[in-house]
Structures are given as structure tokens and as C-alpha cells.
Amino acid sequence: MKKLIVLTGLLFSLCVTAQQKSVEVKLNLLDGNVITGTSMMGDVELNTSYGKLIIPVANVSTIKVGIGCDKAITDKAIGLLKILNTSTNDDARKAAYNDIVKLGPKAISAVSDFNSDPKNYNENSTYTGEYTIDNVLSELHSAANIEEGAEVDDIVTIDGQYTMGGTFAFTKLDVKTEYGNLSVPKEKIKSVDVSVISAGGAGELTFKLMATKHISSNQNGGWLKTGITLKQGQKFTIIATGEVTLASLSNQKYKPDGSYTATNGTSYPATASEEGGGTTYPSYGNVVYHIGDNSTETLKAGAKFTGNAKTSGMLYIAIYETVYNAANTGSYTVKIVK
Predict the structure, then answer these.
(1) How would you class 119 by CB atoms within 10 Å of its CB: exposed for 0-12, middle for 13-18, buried for 19 or more?
(2) Is 278:272 a contact under the CB 8 Å cutoff?
(3) I want to staple 62 with a disulfide (CB 3.0 to 4.6 A). Which of 32, 124, 143, 157 is the partner?
(4) CA 223 to mean position of chain CA atoms
């Protein structure tokens, strides 16, 4: 996991209320299914070893749900693990093995810690059967569809680049989808991608494009669905600000107009005017858009674009790059006026 960073300026000075906001969410479930829709979320209260942090939901990019742990389950698991570690009786080992499996995924951290502790290494063991600590750990992971090495803590990614681990105490997430309302328990969720829809003036909405996700070549949610439906011929404006670092392009820093700064500090301007003339083909780092759920077009918006919709449909936006790299950082703030 990326090194955890304490955001002193942003987090420790905050004293805010948990006001609910409408957010676009993408839930990646442990069983491999994906749910997209909208949800009402307040600020994220993350209990960490540094204390409680209150993170504005507008700054939250992703929440990775950890395995979690439970003292009562840990205590039960340790007693059973001692049997697996020392007993030569296959029936006793089988019973202990099955009881550990019944404890569920919250036993994973206890089993993993016990197994990695040098003092629990039994150099005199001659057991060659199937009821071993390694096997029960693998079965716990497999039964819950949890990857090896999964974090115990919930991990919150902030502004697409900072991460913090702790416990985000929620039991379920209510999601409004095109197929109806769903209530998804926390223990079924692998991760949640969050995007806040901010209302501006009349006919104006503001979005955040995260370089870690909203890349035009990312086949897994790279295009942000704005929720704005345009009619053919309707006039609309896209205005973008911010800066992203694209790991796929030697960690060069890009702005929405396509200008960029190389890693040696040399700056390169945008190659064409963004509004009223110039090329319509996007450059790396440009904000791009397309209209329609099934559209394959990648149309340049840049830092500022005003035009008329060529067709009717849902408006999608992204950051232009032909290669997706999850190590990208930074974000653009995009205002859309219609």
C-alpha cells in the first residue's frame, strides 16, 4: 500500500458537520460485480491511530474497505490456531480448522499475524495433512473473495493522491441505480469510487476529474458520467482548471489546455487556441468529452470550450491520455454550464 500521509493542513484543522451530499458512486463488490449510481454521503469520519479525522466527502476519491478485526474473534482464533500449530491428532486439527473457517473474514488478520510471528514456528512439527494454518488462511481468503495481502484498515484516498488508513464506521451504503434502490452491506464491498456533484448557479454543475481514475483510455470507469443530458443543438460550456501528473508520460505535469511541465522543469505551452479555432484533436492532458452512453468519440474541450451538442444524450468527460496508469496524481475541477 502507498505510504500513509497525514494531511495536517486539510484534516486536523477541520471542524465541520456531516452534511449529506449527493455523490456519484461506483461500488466494486467482493464477488466481482459492479454497482453504479448515486448515494447520499456525509463527511467521512475515519478513526485512525492519530485520532479521528473528518474528511470532506468532496475530497474523497476512493474508499477501500478493509478486512477489519474483532477482539472476540481474535481471541477465539488464537486458541484454535494453537491446536493447528501443535496437535498431532488429525480429528482435533480438523475440528479446529473448521471452527476457524466459521469465524469468517474477520479472523484473517489474527491467522495472518499468528502465522508470521516467529515464536509460533514449530520446528518439530511432522504433520503432513491438509489441516494447516497456511491452508485455513487460504480458505478464509477464498471463501470471502478477499485477495491475499488485503489491508485490515479501511483506506481512504484523498484528492486522488493522499491515502489514510483507519476505520470508517458504516454498516451499509444505499445506492440509487437505474434499476432501483439497493442497500449494500459494508462486508460485501471491496471499494467505493466517489465523485461529488456540486451545484453552482442556474444550469451550472461542477465536477472533479481524478487523474487516478478519469482517464479516457481507462476501460474501468475512466469516463465520468455527469448526469447532464443534452439535446441536439443545445449550447453548453466546459471550463476546467487544475493540474495532473501523468505517470504514463514520464510524470510530466499537465493542465487542461494541454500545456505541460517536464520533469526537468521545462514548460511547454498549449499547441492551439482552446476556443474559437485551432485543432479539435485532443492533446495529452486535455479535458475531453463525448455525448451518449455508447459513443466512441473523444472530443476536445481543453481548458475552455463552448459549442453545440452534435447529438442528444448523456454528457461524459475525462482527461485525455492513450495509456492508463493508476499511479497518476492530481485532479481537474470542471464546471459545465448549459
Answers:
(1) exposed
(2) yes
(3) 157
(4) 14
